[in-house]
Amino acid sequence: MIRIMYAAMILLSGASVASGQNPADTSxxxxxxxxxxSDVVKDLAPTGTLRAGINLGNMVLAQKDExxxxxxxxxxxxxxxxxxxxxxxxxxxxxxxxxxxxxxxKAGALxxxxxxxxxxxxxEVAFTAPYVIIEGVYLVPKDSALKTVGDVDRAGVRVGVNKxxxxxxxxxxxxxxxxxxRGESGIDLFVNDKLDAAAGVKQPLVEYAKTNPAVRVMDxxxxxxxxAMGTPVGxxxxxxxxxxxxxxxxxxxxxxDALKRSNQPDAAVAPxxxx
Length: 275
Prior knowledge:
Layout: H1 2-20, H2 26-29, H3 38-44, E1 50-55, E2 63-64, E3 71-72, H4 74-86, E4 90-95, H5 98-106, E5 113-116, H6 119-122, E6 125-141, E7 158-162, H7 166-174, E8 179-183, H8 186-192, E9 197-201, H9 202-210, E10 215-217, E11 223-232, H10 236-251, H11 254-261, E12 268-269
Helix pairs in contact: 3-10
């Protein structure tokens, strides 16, 4: 009897120590307990880890921490919060362009992505409603004869774009006369090849123009870029949960707070979805 009681005391002591141990950072691991339905977890983290594609090529969505070199920003915050709720670790898979992120999802290397909603992508990505709205604008030489967005779509006008970006896909559909020149960096193409314009996300083009007096950002936008979360098509339970998750993150102030923390005041929180 004494031996049984002694053994029970050892077991209880061990359990107490285990429960008192300090777990690793839940922003990396996710919570240890999830009340999310198992089919949702299986859809969004089939390997047991939530693999999130992070596009460091869009400064509104993600930035590299100057001290640690690690990604930060709204997409990183959303990925960690989703992983916490699912109760799984989060792996941030880094890319330097949206097109490469999309290819990563198509290759089966990612479970969630943060991409602009585009018809070309919708065949592969089950999108949520947008969580943030940003603008697509043109950068032109300071003395350019192109004054308005409508002036750009003319014969002989050449526009540099990041290959596979949302604005590349949009302008491919909508420009009738102007020529798109695609590459790793639309700005580099604009400068090196002396193009008539560069198309891109407003924030980085404005930052570039601040330090380059020979260029200016054209007034007005040529598109509204609706940034959303997404998961591979066919993961229906996961996609449904992801849509609810995004709406909750907008309504509860999470998105607004993340934009503020990452110093992106010009990006607007998307309105609630009516679907």
